[in-house]
Amino acid sequence: MFCDKCGGLMHPKEGKLVCMGCEGEQAIKEEDRKTIMDHQEKKEIAFFDDVDTLPKEKILCEKCGNNEAYFVVRQMRAADEPETMIYKCTKCGYKWRR
């Protein structure tokens, strides 16, 4: 979903689409509703679907005190920013990042 005025990326806000560039607004088209709903449902980080293949690290879980967690490394921001380490406790499943 791109802005008709400037071509910028649109995002849903208060029942309409708002441009991230020029802040122009558009009504949400019926064909865009499914895409928006799918995206909103996927906001949960799904990096830990297959934990059997993920590496583990000895790190203290803040929630249960376990000392082992699965981890993944993701580039969350621009390339000149450091990567983010995302952890999931092997015992309680608590997720955090560092």
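the 2nd protein, sequnce then structure:
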Amino acid sequence: MRTERSFDDLTYAGLVALGIACIVIARWASRRRGSRLDSFVALRVGDVLVTEVIGAMLVGYGLGSLVAPDEGLVGGQRGPRPVGRIGLFFGGPGATIQFGLALAFAAIAILIRIDIRDVLLGGRTTRNPLTMYVGWDARVIAKIPAGGYGEIAMHDANGNIMPVSATADVDIAEGTTVRVVGTKNLNLVVAPEPWRT
């Protein structure tokens, strides 16, 4: 009996590890919003990463199973699943602590990603849509003088090259590889990448 329980513990610990791996992979793949990794690995839906939510559910279920085993021993034989007594999600008919923790962890993963102010105020917050490009790489196609404006070329979410107005704190020559480091009004702020010049 103890050997079987140890195997179950290893299985549930494996679920927790798999869930953590899904969360790490989702966050890694979502570093560049709109990229193929973001779309097909992180599975972004709006601001939520579906792969991260699935990982959180696996972690919740695995931890719940380690704390409250999936099946109990009743009279030396396998009996019914233990049912939690905490509330609707944890103690309803057929609900288990494992399922409740999986839902709770998934809800936390979703709430971490969405902007509550945006949801509550119906999108009336002042968000600059250009911030999604921070961290993207681009190439200067029209010289950018220090404090002035020039033009960069960068790939959009579909892989098409688009010209964009940009500014910088230093002079940047045409053909230099730059990284978007911020926004200023309706323009991107770029800085040269020293290792690529």
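The chain has two domains: 2-120, 129-196. The radius of gyration is 24 Å.
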